[in-house]
Model the fold of this input.
Amino acid sequence: MDQLLNNIKNIPGVVGVAVFRDNGSVAAFDFPPAYDKTQLSQMGLKFQPIKDILPQNERDIIYLCWEYEDLLAFYYPVTGGWVNIISNDKIPMPMFSLTMTAVSIKFPELLAKKEQLLPPSLQGHTPAPVPSPSSHTVPQAKIEELEKLLATYLGPAASVIFKRTAAHLGYLLTDLPGNILKPLLEGVISKVPDNKKDEVNEKVKKYL
Done:
């Protein structure tokens, strides 16, 4: 997977690339250090619904592109997931198209694998130990209260949405660090009807 990431990063202008599976989980990434796994997981949550509404045959769509001032954000669907690429607006599009056509056929087999890959910049290094979240874990009673509150807006699916959102962020609800509660709620509330979002956001403030 790292070779495919390197091929994309070698396109002039590309500053970051992340590969996601169909469920929105991060499969691999090579982004600047300012972007951590949690932020990229939130990206997966935002883009995952796009996968659901696109044609099932990825050949029906080449890629989507958004322009943000002098940056471009690409969404490139592949079988089993998709690739998000951030570049400047000087990226040579012919080279981009040729490279993505060449590498995209190799992603499906790699995305079928379960392991989470480190970015190339960290490969060969021992990851720093993750601090125990025991003293910062969100109490289950609070999770249950929030599920009950959101069930008013999402119905019986609320508990499933909570579990799925936590999984996209890389955590279990039974072992959720306190600093992940806010992105978890943002992901869940994104499923609430637009005319109720402000109301829900106001109600969950006391839990943050």
About this structure: Residues 182 and 193 are 19 Å apart (CA to CA). The beta strands are 14-21, 26-30, 64-68, 71-78, 81-88.
